[in-house]
Amino acid sequence: MYATCPKCGYAHNEAEKGEAACPACGLIYSKWLKSIASSDDAVTVSVSATSASAATSALIEFLFRAKPNVTRLEVAAYAVVWIGLAVWGWQFIVMDWQSAEIMRSFMHNVDLIFHEAGHVLFMPFGRFMMFLGGSLFQVLLPLIFVVAFLWVNKDAFAASVCLWWTGQSLMDIAPYIADARALRLPLLGGGTGADSPGRHDWEYLLRQLGMLEQDTNIAATVDFIGSGVLLIALAWGLYMLRVYYRTAMN
Fold this sequence. Notes:
With about 250 residues, this protein is mainly α. The protein folds into 2 domains: about 1-65, no CATH class; about 65-250, no CATH class. The chain contains 7 helices and no strands. α4 (about 125-155) crosses α6 (about 200-210) and α5 packs antiparallel against α7. The longest helix is centred in the first third of the chain and has 36 residues, at about 30-65. The chain is flat.
C-alpha cells in the first residue's frame, strides 16, 4: 500500500508493497488513515466551534456594550424613561386589540405618520408592496433606529427604547389586520373600508394572499409577537441600566 511506512520510514521492497501493514513496526495502514481522518474532523469541529464562539461573543458585545463616559445624571434620566416605558408598555399589552383601543393612543398618531410615508416609499415596487409598505415601514423604521443607536451611538439603552417602539408598532397594526373583513375602522381621509372599496390595506393584502378568512388569527399573532418584543425591550433596557449604573459609579 505504501512504498515507505509513514510511521517508521521502513522502505518496502517490491514484494511488500501490497501489504496491509508495515513489516517493520506493524502499523496497520487502514487504521492509520482512519486516525488521520478523525484528527482532521476534530480540528475542523474545533475551528468551527471557535468561530461560532467568537461570533457569539461579538454579538453579545454589540448588544450589551456600555455607553462610553456615561454620567450619573444620564443614568438617572434613563431610569425615569424606563419606568415611563414600563408603565406605558403594560397599558398597551393589556389593551384589547379587538376593540382597536390602541389606535386611540398618542403613539398611534406617531405610527400613522410613518405608515403613510411607507406607502409612498414602496409605491415604485408595485401595488402589493405599496399597500404592504405602510405597515412594513411602520415596523422597520424603529428597527433601523435600533441598529443606528447600537452601531453609531453605541448606546444600547437607546436601542432598547427603539425596540420597545417596534413592539408597540406591531401591536398597533393588529387591529387594522383584524378589520380586513369587517371594514369598520375609519380610514385616513374619512369613511371606512366598507365605504371606500380597495382602500383598506389588509383587506387587499390578505385577499391577494388568499388568507382573508385568517385576519383575526393573524392579528392575534401579530399582537402577541408585539407584546413579546416590547417585554424583551424592557428587559434589555433594565439590564443596560444596571450596566450603565456600574459604569457611572466607577
